[in-house]
Amino acid sequence: MMKEADNSPKYKLFIRLLTANQKRIYGFIYALMPNQAASEDIMQQTSLFMWEHFDDFREGTNFSAWGITIARNLVRQYCRKQKRSLITFDSQAIENLIDQSDVFETQDDQITALRHCFKKLQSYEQEMLRMRYIQRIRVPEIAENLNRTTGHIYRVMARIHNSLLKCIKRQLSF
Amino acid sequence: MDEKEISKITVYTLKLVEQTIGPEEFEELNSILSANPDAARHYNSLMMMISNFQDRGKEIVYDEITIEGALKNAFWKEMADYERTALAVEISKEEPEKEDKTLTEIRKIRPKVSKLSIYSLLLCSATLIFVIAYAHLISMRHGIEVATLSDSMNAKWADIASPVEKGTRLVTGEKRWLLREGYAELLFDNQARVVLEGPAEFKILAEDRIGLSFGKVYATVPKNAIGFSVYTPIAKIIDMGTEFGVEADLGGNTQLHVFEGRTVLLVGQNDHTINVKVSAGQARNASGSTQTITEIPLHENYFVRTFDSTQNIVWRQPLLLDLADIVRNGNGLGTGNSQMRLNYIKGFTTEHRGGETLIAKNYLPIKSHPFIDGIFIPNGRTVVSSRGDVFEDFLITSGVHCADLFGNPPPGMYYLDAQQRTVQFNGQEYSERGKSCIFMPGSNHGITFDLDAIRRHYNLKIDRFTSRVGLADFDDKRCNANFYVLVDGQLRYSLLGYSQKGVLNDVSVKLEDTDRFLTLATSENVDQIDYMANSTLRENFCVFAEPVLVLKRIDSMQR
Question: What is the nearest CA distance from A133 to chain B, expressed in angstroms?
Fold first, then answer.
């Protein structure tokens, strides 16, 4: 279907919107289904469903929120069909995660708050996050680099992430 | 949810994202999320934040990335040019402080940089380049008091108009501090301590960060201040709980010498950052021109580690007080007299004694030296301090002495069988030209140091006493001696019936603030039934090699 329409303005608009939002939608799916294969499968289904129902989407409204709503339903459907494997959450956990998934709708606000809160961190805390997310060094390697145990660095990282979350919550009051 | 549970969820989530989570941990996370909607909400918030960092990380940390990106080689070259002339620049007027430099504001002024540079070139190009450099270097919260000038000695500051005195609070911001001469100690509110040696120029960048444009700084960072950083024009040194020295030279190079603990040295920008772990006993040079890091020898005495403005004393070496130097009537820092020895009748003397055997029954206080409480001959129950501390368990000896007590004796000063002898162990000389030692020839020696007097004099804590004890191998005669270390009359170390010559044995005695007297003693190990047949009095050449008190700083503000 996509190939047939790949030169149409509608298709180009869809691709533009999907490209701009797919990481966000995928992030939501991955949070529910922290399994790369399953997440990609659902992302693919979500994209297809969105294209098929793109006529229902009104330009100017929130494309990612629409995608997240679709993905949410598809995750539910996927869980009903698939037997739970070792690396996916059980249905009750997923239901809880879906119930609490409104936080993903504040993503743009969170970026602003995150920038604000990042500046409030101690310099070494900022450095740790830079190592992890800018230089993309995994925690075990950071631990080795700093001559600390992996467990210790995970705890430090957890503390940093939690303090950021607290700060963001204060900023956004959610 | 309590903090512990939140922390657990976060750790598991971070592991989940990195795919390092174990099956049991995943199952536990699943259980928590199934049971608790709040946990699910926390998890979702966290995942969204991680997703944001992964997708838009550079945007989130944009300020510093952009700033670092701006500091490319050309810019550093300008910085280096500035530094080459910095000493000649008289700072008469500060740039007006810009409040709350946001990224937007920095971006707005960026087109003006070239104008400012031209203007600054007319006035004093170097000065303004420096200001701009640090404005770009880091996003700072300005005007926050984060450190105190806790002490200074012979300090001459460039800013004569506003004198910098002990107790001055230092604020984050653009202000440059140029220490032309002397020494200054800064105590950050997080208890990180830095000692600057003039000439040096620095800025307070943040509550845990100092910018050193040139000069030398020595940092002592307690565990609760881990992460304290020193920024130089080309490098960042991040502390991991340690003591280290940094020098930024005028050629744009940075030297890092680590004396305790670990640090991370970062050179370069963004994805091209070189990240090197530098641990105790190691040193590195970061080249300003090539931005490469090379290994260099550690210089133990290169940095001023602390100073005592009341005594006008500078400590470049590890904080060690040489007890051998005190035994030769010195202050422990090398001021002793090689002709001085301690005699059990006369106290300090320069007279040579003939080697006759004398009885000394009483504790002899040494009032002429504040650090030495007294000397004595150990023999059974013996008084070991002027306070009357008694040690009951010295082995019974003849109670006589046949030689004086020496500290760092001159080479060849001891005659035996008409030959000059110098104390040596494994080819290492222990004398005034070699390593230090307290020499107790003929055994039967005791000396007590007054730890309180030492603490008071140097305004320092005493952490421990360390030494290496042994018998000098002067000849093939037999020997048999006892070594003792006492604290307030209580035995803390002993080596009894020792007869192996030429070997040194490590001694380390931890000292508390409440410990008053440290006693070092040696004695002959005699046969109590037939003393004369078995006396080793004259064969024992007892040595306390490298006898030092390891000192620690106390907070200067408490002095």
Answer: 6
DSSP string, B325-351: HHHTTS-SSS---TT-EEETTTEEE-P
SS (H, E, C) chain A: CCCCCCCCHHHHHHHHHHHHHHHHHHHHHHHHCCCHHHHHHHHHHHHHHHHHCHHHCCCCCCHHHHHHHHHHHHHHHHHHHCCCCCCCCCHHHHHHHHHCHHHHHHHHHHHHHHHHHHHHCCHHHHHHHHHHHHCCCCHHHHHHHCCCCHHHHHHHHHHHHHHHHHHHHHHHCC
pTM of the model: 0.49
**Average pLDDT, integer, range B413-437:** 83
* Chain A contacts in chain B segment 388-447 (CB below 8 A): none
**ipTM of the complex, rounded to two decimals:** 0.86
Does the pLDDT at position B264 exceed 90? no
pLDDT at residue B41 greater than cutoff 70: yes
Using one digit for the tens of pLDDT, what is the confidence trace for B491-526? 999 999 888 888 999 999 999 999 999 999 998 876
Structure tokens, B226: 């881990």
How many residue contacts between A and B have a Cβ separation below 8 Å? 163
**Tokens representing residue B294 in the block:** 């090379």
Residue window 225-254, chain B: list those with CB within 8 Å of chain A: 226-229, 238, 240
In chain B, the percentage of residues whose pLDDT exceeds 70 is 77
Who among A92, A129, A165 is closest to B45 (CB)? A165
CB contacts of B47 in chain A (<8 Å) are: 27, 30-31
